[in-house]
Write a structure and sequence with these properties.
The chain is of the alpha+beta class. The chain contains 3 helices and 6 strands. Strands 1-2-3-4-6-5 form a 6-stranded antiparallel beta sheet. The chain starts with a strand and ends in a 5-residue tail after the last helix.
Length: 111
């Protein structure tokens, strides 16, 4: 598990994949597309939408929905259930991705 600053808050990654994080006062939980619609119906759950487009598979849980340790643990477990199915991201993949993003911003070739 790695802690990393993302989305203007703190996130936790499992083998390079985002698991959960904090954005403003809410929890961001990565639950995957297959359970997304079901989990959006949970109390205090909503779309994670900070860019004008909801991120399917990502749930934003209001502070009241993570008030107790049991509530928080439930959301972490839901995220673990999904993220543990993802292949690990290698550090080389992460470096290539960062380099590609930098070059895309400057319109330079990635090689």
């Amino acid at each position: 598990m790695v802690e990393k600053r993302m989305f203007g808050g703190v996130c936790f990654l499992l083998e390079g994949n985002l698991l959960v994080g904090i954005w403003q006062n809410s929890l961001i939980a990565r639950v995957g597309a297959s359970r997304y619609a079901e989990l959006l119906k949970e109390p205090y759950a909503g779309e994670f939408n900070v860019t004008g487009h909801a991120m399917t598979g990502w749930i934003m849980v209001e502070p009241d929905g993570i008030e107790s340790d049991v509530q928080l643990r439930t959301w972490i477990d839901r995220s673990l259930e999904f993220v543990s199915t993802l292949p690990p991201k290698s550090s080389a993949t992460a470096r290539r991705s960062k380099r590609a993003k930098r070059h895309a911003k400057t319109d330079l070739p990635t090689d």
